[in-house]
Every structure is written in C-alpha cells, then in structure tokens.
Amino acid sequence: MPKLNPADVQAALRNPLAFIAARWTPAPRTVQRAALAALVMAVVIVVTGGAVRLTGSGLGCPTWPTCTDDSLTTTREMGFHGVIEFGNRMLTYVLCAAVGWAIVAARSQKPWRRGLTRLGWAQFWVVMGNAVLGGIVVLVGLNPYTVAAHFLLSSALIAVATVMWQRTREGDESPRPLVGKAVQQLVWFLVAASALLIAVGTVVTGAGPHAGDSSQVDRIPIDWENVAKLHAVLAWIVVTLTFALWFVLKAVDAPRGPLARTRELFLVLLAQGVIGYMQYFTHLPEVLVGLHMFGSCLVWIGTLRVLLSLRERPQAGLDLPGPAAEATVRTSA
Predict the structure, then answer these.
(1) Measuring CA to CA, which residue among 83, 97, 112 is closest to residue 21?
(2) Where does the pLDDT of residue 256 fall: very low under 50, low under 70, confident under 90, or very high at 90 and above?
(3) Is pLDDT of 168 > 80?
C-alpha cells in the first residue's frame, strides 16, 4: 500500500468543488454564460409547467416522487398526458444541471467570489424546495393554492438567477448609486407593484377555467373575471410607473443603463398587455395563456434589471469616475 503524505491526505479530503476549482479557472464570459443558462432554464421550467396545466396534464403522473404506484416513469397506458407531466419532471434535472454549472463556474473563478457562489447555492435550494412543492401539488390533486405557491417560488428562483447573472458582470466593490433617492424609491414602488401583479395573476389562474386536469379539480371560490379586471388595473399601474420612471430619468439626465433597462421593460409591458387583452376577449385560448406566462417571466426579469441598473459595482482596486460620479454631479446640481 503506497504511503500518503500530508499533502495527499489534504487533497483527498477536499470537497468536489474545491477539487475542480484547484484545476480549472473559467473565463469571466464562461461564468456569465453559466449564470445566464441557469436563468434561461428557470424561465423554461415555468413555461413547460404552464404547458402541463394548459394541456390538462397536471395529474398525468398521479403520484410523486414516482409516476405511478408501480412505475418510476410514465407508462403506455397513461398516454399523452403522462408524457407531458413526466417530461416536465425530467426538465427539473436539466435545471439542476444548469444551476450546478453556475455554482461550479462561480466557485472556480479566480479570485473566488463567495457572494456569487452563495447566489448559485440559493438557486439550488429554491429548486429543491420547489421540486418538493411540485410533488405536494400532485399529491393534493392540484389544489389551486399550492399551484399558486409553486409559481411564486419559481418567480423567486428567477429573481435570484437574475441577480446572479447581473453580479457576474460586476465587481465586488460597494455599490455606487447612479440616481438619487427619489428615483430609487420610485423603482421600489415599481418592483412592489410588479410583485403584486404576479401574485394576483396566480389568483386569476387559481380561479380560472384552466384547472390543469380533465378531472374535477378545486378552484379558488371567487369570480375569476373580477380578479382578472383587478389584474388589469395593476398592470396599468405598473405601465404608468414605468413610463413615469422613464420620464424622470430623462429629466434628470440619468446614465444610459437605467434609461435602456426602463425602455426595455416598457416595451415588454406593452407586448404583455396586448397578449393579456387578447386572451381575455378570446376566452383564454391555451396558446395565448402560455405566451402570457412567458411574458410574466420577462416582465419580472425586466423589472429586476431596472432595479439593478440603478447602481454600479466596479472591480476591486478600480476607481472609475464614470456614471456614478456623473450621477452625483447631476444630483448635486
């Protein structure tokens, strides 16, 4: 038996992430792409989850964690709905792989940025929690409140993934504001209104006609059309806040970043509004509802990007006077 020196023992006791990090240094662009892949998969899993509901496949696999009491996977007898539901479950592993790649890339970056790695792990634990919650959704027969919680937790995953993607393109210095306090407060109102808009949207889903399965499924006992009208009012509030923000940013001659992100959000909101009204007046066709769910993800990402654009975080050791200094001068003026 070969003798092991202390260095060999220490190397053997390293965790896998440290082992990889000691032998690989990804380029900054690789880390950014890994974070973006995790964000894209977080959106994909929301859209495919919506496809499960809209095709009536929510109970295609009637139990969890297996597909049936006797089979881990879908069976021929379960048909199309079983394939759709089981396929969505399998995409969870693709999502885990994307998040895992983001964690490994962040951990291997030199110098090691602990905050970035923690954002990756936060995504992992949200994915694990949402997988369990998804199983509970099946076990309780698509209870609309659990379905709503499932979607909201997916929105939380998108939020963390968006922040990580942004942080891969920044340094770790303390954030420098690019706008004044009044503008920051307006954006926080916009974020709160967007979050409320998404939450009310889950109530519309829970009370609406797309229950997720062809069998009898409980719905939230309220008139979904009235909630849809409230949802529309909140959407107009978000659009108004976004336009007001763009006007204020132009008035104070804000840096290009916040203006560009606000303009992008405004365009996404307009497209989402068109889809929303079309689906309402055409009695909720499945394709338009699916597009509206995708648009909801884009609105949430766009809102968070506006918030994150209000500050800059330069690389350590760099004292860049750029946008932050310009914003300070404008605010003073």
Answers:
(1) 112
(2) very high
(3) yes
